[in-house]
Automatic annotation (TrEMBL):
It comes from Saccharothrix ecbatanensis. This is Uncharacterized protein.
Length: 204
């Protein structure tokens, strides 16, 4: 089996062309591994959070409750369970807005992950590390060169849906495109992943 190769534009060590000002890349340390996350940024939400003094959210309990509320729509307090209301009342300023009869979710994820890129000199290590991001966004790993059993390795990577690029970090060549997420829906874990990437953008 032969795979076509194609050169791609790169920026900040990624193998992803950044099409506009809303798309950027951030180096993160997450799941015990280092990766570059290419993401789209919701600048209005970032500005709003900065104005509120609100950073990233890390509470799974809070995010779980927030996912049950529509964004920007007032929900009658009578429609929210007592335990969820207690969680929301403890939330930092800028997360929700309460009135005597309703609560409105203000927050949305600041970043939307588009691609996770890991770099490894060992193919098995790269495949395993890239697979850590399977539930959150397409993923790819970059190696210096193809091994002698390239077809076998690329078949395995394709089976896992992991893209592969080879060459220097500054200008790698894609030999296998990452598989897009199929039938994907946002989850609490996904939102927390977005928040953790956002935290790394704040640390830059």
């Amino acid at each position: 089996m032969t795979y076509p190769v194609r050169a791609v534009g790169t920026m900040s060590g990624t193998v992803f062309t950044l099409p506009d000002r809303d798309t950027s890349s951030t180096k993160v340390r997450i799941f015990g591994t280092s990766a570059t996350i290419v993401h789209r940024t919701h600048h209005a939400e970032h500005g709003r959070r900065c104005g509120e003094g609100l950073g990233h959210l890390d509470s799974m309990e809070l995010l779980d409750v927030l996912m049950g509320l529509p964004s920007g729509e007032a929900v009658p307090l009578s429609a929210v369970g007592p335990s969820s209301l207690r969680v929301l009342r403890r939330a930092p300023s800028g997360v929700v807005n309460f009135t005597p009869r309703s609560v409105t979710r203000l927050v949305v994820p600041v970043v939307t992950p588009l691609l996770a890129v890991v770099y490894s000199s060992h193919w098995r290590d790269g495949l395993v590390r890239a697979s850590e991001f399977a539930a959150y966004c397409p993923r790819m790993f970059v190696a210096r060169e193809l091994p002698e059993n390239a077809d076998e390795v690329l078949v395995e990577a394709s089976w896992y849906g992991v893209g592969v690029a080879v060459g220097p970090r500054s200008a790698p060549t894609v030999v296998l495109d990452p598989e897009p997420l199929s039938e994907w829906r946002p989850s609490v874990a996904w939102w927390r992943f977005c928040e953790r990437v956002y935290r790394h953008t704040l640390d830059r």
